[in-house]
Write a structure and sequence with these properties.
Structural class: alpha/beta
Shape: elongated
Mean pLDDT: 88
Largest sheet: 5 strands, mixed
Length: 321
């Protein structure tokens, strides 16, 4: 966090509006941060994805470093848990590691008169990790289905692949409120039930999953790339073969599309009324997006390319008509 603070201090949010530089794509997709209005006070309530949590927390803390008195509370109830409170008007912003569900969550927002704007903020490389001593280095998509799918009966790694070690499988996966769970179930396993196997330990706290995998022989789990990167001294990331050979998770492979199908978009959803009626919400959201490239890179995520960043800026500019 301190290193990230130095990055944004160097770029300057009070330097007369010089452009910030994009963090990972090699292009210049930074926005003119402009003058931070340190006279704006108030509170901003955020909840949702544990994957996006470090990025939103970084944005809040960096705005404080730059002199803002705005108080931002950031929860990590999971993407689904975040939408539950967002769609009833209890929060101003919802962190999400998947799009809002059109069948279940959108109707709740509509019932409660919550109009919102989706803002794409970064890309993540969903990372499958195992105990560092486990001799499993690459998994095909078919093997991911055998490992995590709801119909899986695999209890030994050799049930997944006869060439794998004779070792019991012990799984640690996100809970059902997590967008990370939803993404694995719906976009990778692609079972019509959109669920995963129920005999693995679950938690909405990614740190619990990291601890479980790192301390258990035969342990396996999955979470956002940031959590792997922070704990790579005690975990081993598994390469994924999406049909074109084994590819390891990284910023580069997620952005160029080769880390398929586990590269995924990350979002924040902003309550339009909160943005237009509450100066603190508008100030925080504007600051977040203005410094997005540096916040994403510093928090360990893959910054947007120039085209996607421009679309996010346009969406933000369109709030309130």
């Amino acid at each position: 966090m301190a290193a990230l603070a130095l990055v944004l201090t160097a770029c300057g949010s009070d330097d007369g509006g010089d452009d910030t530089s994009a963090g990972g794509s090699g292009g210049d997709n930074g926005a003119a941060a402009g003058e931070l209005d340190t006279s704006v006070e108030g509170e901003v309530a955020v909840d949702g994805s544990s994957t996006v949590y470090p990025m939103t927390t970084a944005a809040a803390e960096l705005m404080t470093v730059d002199g803002s008195p705005i108080q931002v509370s950031v929860g990590e109830a999971g993407t689904g848990g975040g939408f539950e409170v967002f769609c009833t008007g209890e929060t101003d912003i919802s962190d999400a590691s998947r799009p809002i569900d059109e069948e279940e969550e959108v109707p709740v927002c509509e019932e409660n008169g919550i109009e919102y704007t989706e803002l794409l903020i970064a890309t993540d490389a969903l990372t499958v990790a195992v105990h560092p001593d486990l001799a499993v280095d690459c998994l095909t998509v078919e093997e991911l289905v055998k490992l995590f799918g709801p119909k899986s009966k695999a209890t030994n790694w050799q049930d997944i692949n006869p060439e794998f070690p004779d070792q019991e499988i012990v799984g640690f996966i996100p809970g059902t409120d997590s967008g990370t769970y939803d993404y694995m179930a719906a976009d990778v396993v692609e079972d019509e039930s959109e669920t995963l196997r129920k005999d693995f330990e679950t938690s909405e706290d990614d740190n619990v999953l990291v601890t479980g995998v790192s301390e258990t022989e035969g342990g396996v789990g999955f979470f956002g790339y940031t959590y792997y990167e922070e704990n790579q001294d005690k975990l081993k990331a598994v390469a994924i073969d999406g049909g074109n050979g084994c590819v390891e998770p990284s910023a580069e492979t997620a952005q160029d599309g080769s880390y398929s199908p586990l590269a995924r978009p990350l979002f924040i959803y902003v309550n339009n009324k909160s943005y237009t009626d509450e100066p603190a919400v508008a100030e925080f959201t504007d600051y977040y997006i203005a410094n997005l490239a540096d916040i994403a890179a510093g928090a360990g995520f893959i910054p947007l390319n120039d085209e996607d960043y421009a679309a996010t800026q346009d969406a933000l500019a369109g709030i309130g008509g």
